[in-house]
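re the bet — no i am not wrong, look at it urself. input seq straight from the record:
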Amino acid sequence: LAGLPDTPDRPALQAKLLLRKGRILFLQERLEAADAAFTESQKLAPSAQASDGRAAVDERRAQLRGDEAKAAVEVAEARLLIDAGNLKEALVKLEEAKKADRLYRPGFELRVQVLRKMKGLKPALDVLREAEELGVNNWAPLKAELYEEAGELHRSLQHYKEAKDPEGTRRVIGKIESMMAKSAESGQVERASQDPLIHAILNDPIVHAAMEKVKKRPKLAEMYLTDKVLGPKLMRLIQAGILKLPSASDEPPKGKFVVK
């Protein structure tokens, strides 16, 4: 869409492309994104096709909603199997719940719990991605827990902040500070200095610009840690012992990054 020429008919062209995008997303059952595409198309250039697209999304959601009572029974049985330690059979029950009602939130929650135990972080997050594509949203607290458990602290911090969970935020920041203390071990920085990736991060103009801003506004540090682009890079520097997020007793003020 960004590459379209800036002409009087640009909105109409954008609307057509969004309409096409919405149809593709609908066929992929990415209903939330499809609905957004049809809605944006309708705003740019009202049309019957966009209205029909939104109606089709609503109709498909109603079909997927299915038999909530049956899904609830399957989920209840799955809980019993989980308590008995039979995760494989529990997963079978949860698949039955999914067939009964694709949008049943407790089914998603329990599938995440089982898959996290059986297969790890990625399959559990895939379940949440599926839920969001179908329009079942607000998973920030659960995502925060998953990423914290997996040790991906910058991602965990991002979702705890999204969930407005101060306790979770403080806990993750404490873990980051603990990581920095361990990184201070003798030889860690020297080893990291030989890492080409570390050199690339330190020479990244975006990272450099962020650090300059943090010098002036220390409170930006936590925000940058939660950024999808900067967060992983800053965490890599912290793990290498090159970047420091001081505690309250340190100088400069709390929240300010320092390159050792």
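see?? The beta strands are 243-244, 258-259. told u. also The radius of gyration is 23 Å. so pay up
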